[in-house]
Amino acid sequence: MNKSVLLGTLAFAGLAAAGASAATLDDVKARGTLNCGVTTGVPGFAEPDANGVWQGFDVAVCRAVAAAVLGDPEAVTFVPTTGKTRFTALASGEIDMLARNTTWTFSRDTDLKFDFTGVNYYDGQGFMVPAALGVSSATELDGATVCIQTGTTTELNLADYFRVNNMSYEPVPIETGAEAVQQYLAGACDVYTTDRSALAAQRAGFETPSDHVILPEVVSKEPLGPLVRHGDSEWADIVRWTLNALIAAEEYGVTQANVEELGSAPGDNPEINRMLGTEGELGAMVGLEAGAFKNAIAAVGNYGEVFDQNIGESTAIGLARGLNAQYTDGGLIYSPPFR
Amino acid sequence: MSDAHAHSVAFVRRSEIPPAPPPTAETGAFKWVRENLFSGPFNTIMTILGILVVWYLLSGLIPWIANGTWEGDDIRDCREILQGSGGGCFAVIADRWPQLLFGFQYPDYLRWRPTLAFLLLFVAVPPALFVMFLPRWTLIATAIYPFVAYWLIWGGTLLAPLMTALALIGGYLVFKQVEKRGFVQGLAAGIVTAVVILWIGGFVSDAGSGVLRLEPVESRAMGGFMLNLILGTVCVSLSIPLGIMLALGRQSKLPIVKGFCVVFIEFVRGVPLITLLFVANVVLAYFLPPDVNFDLIIRVIIMITMFSAAYIAEVIRGGLAALPKGQYEAADSLGLDYPQAMRLIILPQALKISIPGIVNVAVGLFKDTTLVSVISMFDLVGMIRGPILSSTDWVGVYWELWAAACILFFTVCYGISQYSQWLERQLRTDHR
Question: In which residue ranges of chain A is pLDDT below 70?
Answer without folding.
Answer: 1-22
